[in-house]
Amino acid sequence: MADPDNYTDPPTFLSHLQRNPRLQPYDFWPLVADSTVIVQHLSSVAIFVCCFVAIYRELVSPELVVGLGSAATVLGWVLWDFWAAQVEAAKTDLKSTAAVDTDSHFPGFDGQADSPSTRGRSRPSSRGNDAASGLGLTLTLSNGSHAASSVQSRSGSIGFTPSVSSEPSSIVPPSNGRPAYPASNPPPGYYPPDSAFSPRNQKRLATAKSAILICCALLGLSPILKSLTMSTSKDSIWAMSCWLMAINIFFFDYGGGVGVKFPASLSTNAALMSSTVLASRLPSTTHVFSLTLFSIEVFGLFPVFQRHLRHISWRGHLALTFALVFGAGAGLGLTTSKNGGWQRMLVGMLLWSVGAALGMGGCSWWLIGLQRYKNVVIGPWDPARPVIRQGGWES
After folding, report:
1. How far is Cα 36 from Cα 361, in angstroms, rounded to an integer?
2. Which of 104, 131, 243, 367 has a 20 to 30 Å separation from 46 between CA atoms?
3. pLDDT (tens digit, 9 = 90+) per residue, 28-84?
4. Could you give phi then psi for residue 337, rounded to 5 degrees?
5. Euclidean distance between CA atoms 342 and 330, whole angstroms
């Protein structure tokens, strides 16, 4: 008697039962550590908004804001340059070690390496200009001179003298006792003699030129930016800036690594556009220049430093998180009150810190609790999923 189509073998029915194999359970503290990146960016946005409000209400001078921001940017660039120099030095040491290992495994053309066939055998003496000890190689240099050597055995000399010719640009003749390197692979720390700066100093000079160019461009564009939204009402400006800041927060690249030189373009462009719109409501071109330059430092350069700091030192990343949280809280306490004061700043720091801690912990527990909905039971009774291919489909 044939079994029906819906027949299920009772002994083997539960043997194929399994949970979701693709589920990756989360731990609480790693989630809290990863959420520090979000807290840092939210605090950076809050600090920028507080700086704009303080400048708009004339609580602080724009020169002070851009001066502190520029000083912090220069300090961050110095640290980043120091880390980059360390990485390059480590790479140079690895290349030097590899070169030494290669030289130890492959000795030069003098044939002094010990081997079972040559051990205990003295080198043949040179007789005049016809015979020379070595491997029997004839090397043709750029000036046409030849270096010939022959290997002699007890029965006589071996008639094997291969010739190796080279182009003038491929071999660098040794001078002053220094080893010769190919022109395409210069030694570590080498830079062209016609350049007065090393590659690292050339990069530093290029960075300084770019910074000066950006400052000069902003100085020239400040009068235009000041009159950009003159015919627009304030309510429209505030709404537009809020939406652009929301785009910056939601589309920010929170998972970017060190290899990412610049943050996500949509997020950065939205933040810079929001700062431009806000700067157009300030009274003078100095205010516009200061706020625009400060926004470039906060939304364009600071995320790069954050990624490198997190990669280099976790303690430094944690210290920066606390500094940003306290700074954002103090700014909120200063700008939300009429007269400001240290008491308001302390209250703002306390409230923002508690909110950040509750947000990090609560969201982490919430995400862990949601994992139970992914841990579903999978068995042979699940419907088959069709696999679509070029020639057709099959289940």
Report:
1. 11
2. 367
3. 999 999 999 999 999 999 999 999 999 999 889 999 999 999 999 999 999 988 888
4. -105, 160
5. 9
